[in-house]
Write a structure and sequence with these properties.
CATH architecture of the largest domain: Orthogonal Bundle
GO molecular function, one term: promoter-specific chromatin binding
Subcellular location: Nucleus
Number of helices: 8
Number of domains: 2
Number of strands: 2
Order of helices and strands: HHHHHHEEHH
Strand content: under 5%
Largest sheet: 2 strands, antiparallel
Pfam family, one: Myb_DNA-binding
GO cellular component, one term: nucleus
Strand order of the largest sheet: 1-2
Main location: nucleus
CATH topology of the largest domain: Arc Repressor Mutant, subunit A
Structural class: mainly alpha
CATH superfamily of the largest domain: Homeodomain-like
Length: 198
DNA sequence: AAACACGTCAACCGCCTCTAC
DNA sequence: AGTAGAGGCGGTTGACGTGTT
């Protein structure tokens, strides 16, 4: 699809990139609330967003959808991710289907930033008797983890050092999005959307 | 207080697959 | 059967916040 320039030169609309603004989010939420999702390219145009259809789709699926859960991956979810990744490798969307409210992007990020790091640490500490193989490069990557190794990782992951002491205290509406100064919660956006009327 | 290092995650990129024509 | 457009997916990057020195 994007093998060709996305601006069909006939209409030289400049395409916005980078972080989404609150206004753009509201426009997208509003539009989808009224017209439904799908046919993203025409949706983007019809909604008056200077974004590609792909960008709109990604924003909706990963952030704006009302059922999306953010932050605070539970130890159960983490174990499930590890199990499914061992089974399927980097099939993030497939894995995400088994974690309601989680997106492939979130799981992918979680895996790369948290689990992979700890796997490497565990790899370094692994004793010869333990069965622990990691091949995290290819998309066919497989992880086979002995129960002992899982236990070890579970301990480290349930409360990684860089986590707040009480993960459960994380408000679900305060995403791991503490990183952006102009963040707004989805609840805010949805309530504004409701206030705008339909 | 400033500088640097590190961690996190939203968003983009490029490729692949599917579908309609 | 070939082509083009759209959606989906996995990999990667860049910006920003936080921790450390």
């Amino acid at each position: 699809m994007d093998k060709k320039p996305c601006n069909s030169s006939s209409q030289d609309v400049e395409v916005r990139k980078g972080p989404w603004t609150m206004e753009e989010d509201l426009i997208l939420i509003n539009y989808i609330a009224n017209h439904g999702e799908g046919v993203w390219n025409s949706l983007a145009k019809a909604a008056g967003l200077k974004r590609t259809g792909k960008s709109c789709r990604l924003r909706w699926l990963n952030y704006l959808r009302p059922d999306v859960r953010r932050g605070n991956i539970t130890p159960e979810e983490q174990l499930l991710i590890m199990e499914l990744h061992a089974k399927w490798g980097n099939r993030w969307s497939k894995i995400a289907k088994h974690l309601p409210g989680r997106t492939d992007n979130e799981i992918k990020n979680y895996w790369r930033t948290r689990i992979q790091k700890h796997i490497k640490q565990a790899e370094n500490n692994i004793t010869p008797g333990q069965n622990f193989e990691v091949n995290d490069q290819a998309s066919t990557s497989q992880v086979s983890i002995s129960s002992a190794a899982v236990d070890t990782m579970e301990i480290t992951h349930a409360a990684p050092a860089n986590y707040p002491p009480n993960m459960d205290a994380y408000p679900s509406s305060l995403p791991a999005d503490h990183s952006h100064e102009n963040y707004w919660s989805i609840e805010d956006l949805w309530s504004m959307q409701l206030l705008n009327g339909e």
